Amino acid sequence: MRLTTDEALKLFEQGDLLELGKQADAIRKKKFGNRTTFIIDRNINYTNICKNECKFCAFWRRQNQSGSYLLSHEEILEKVRETCAASGTQVMIQGGLHPYLPLSYYEDMLRLIKKNFDITIHSFTATEIQHFATCAGLSILETLKRLQAAGLDSLPGGGAEILVDEVRKKISPKKIMTDDWLNVMQLAHSIGMESTATMVIGFGETLAQRLEHMEKIRNLQDETGGFRAFITWTYQPYNTQLGGDKVSAQDYMKTLALTRIFMDNVEHIQGSWVTQGEKIGQLTQAFGADDLGSIMLEENVVRAAGTSFEMSTQKMIDLIRSAGKIPAQRNTKYEVIADR
């Protein structure tokens, strides 16, 4: 029986953390046994110049501001080359909303990568896609088709934060709103371009607003089936205009467990060692997570907000094994490519 939002909210507000963890773990175990997957990839941030100027982000810079940058295609190709040399199978290319880059910058980048490397390009958030379309004077669907033709394989779920406009207007008033994000994902799914979905907690949103976000993802998944995974992150407040405090590990774990229970039509739930650290990352495997994401050969956005944890392939394998799970390396489609 599918959990309603009212039932989920009651669990959120009144449920015991460990009991929720047990329920989530039972669902995970039924689906995946004791296997936990991870991927080797690299986040490549092609620019930190961004017109959105989100209050929660410590990464963005204005054009010509000290520390602003734009990578050349040659610099990006070198980063991809290093990723392949480290047995990486995916690159996640994301950046700020640069006000003057033509669509050809992104198309040429994609073609060059595909021409030179056998690697999956899981890149560009819904926010970026809508920005590209606006700048090019094209529809979002046509923009997606052109990027797909140039080599874009799938979309990451970034830019979702909390899919409630009341929250978005407070933390990122210049950014796309809820219906925009959902529309880009629906259109991407319509042309066979699958994606992940994310939620960032800790902006002062209510538990009901988190559930509203999750329900919107679940509803779209009912329609398209295009979301491969759901990933919950925690807001990192340092060096940001918004400021504030980090949410507790208990709050994160309770939310994570509920995503496994509530998101019954999304196959994979990812735990976040990137924002939580190794120990909590390891515990996520007992709270519904069947995947620990990437070892991240490079990560800049969370680091800019004052949080930095390091990971290696061997450390990831040990992290999974010491939790009594079986580690396996996966690709972007969550297909196991190597037992580790």
Question: How would you characterize this protein structure?
Answer:
By secondary structure, the protein is an alpha/beta fold. The chain has a single domain, classed as Aldolase class I (TIM Barrel). 44% of the residues lie in helices and 14% in strands. The chain is built from 14 helices and 10 strands. It has helices at residues 5-14, 17-32, 73-85, 103-116, 126-136, 140-150, 165-171, 178-190, 207-224, 249-262, 273-276, 278-283, 301-304, 313-321; strands at 35-39, 41-45, 90-94, 120-121, 195-201, 227-234, 268-270, 291-294, 326-330, 336-339. A 4-stranded mixed sheet has the order 8-1-9-10. Strands 2-3-4 form a 3-stranded parallel sheet, covered by helices on one side. The longest helix has 18 residues, at 207-224. The chain is globular and about 50 Å long. Mean pLDDT is 90; it is low at 299-309.
Quick overview of this protein structure:
With 340 residues, the protein is α/β, with parallel strands linked by helices. It has helices at residues 5-14, 17-32, 73-85, 103-116, 126-136, 140-150, 165-171, 178-190, 207-224, 249-262, 273-276, 278-283, 301-304, 313-321; strands spanning 35-39, 41-45, 90-94, 120-121, 195-201, 227-234, 268-270, 291-294, 326-330, 336-339. It contains 14 helices and ten strands.
Helix content: 40-55%
Query: What is the count of distinct domains?
Result: 1
N/C terminus separation? 36 Å
From the spread of the alpha carbons, the general shape counts as globular
Q: Got a strand count?
A: 10
CATH topology, by name, is TIM Barrel
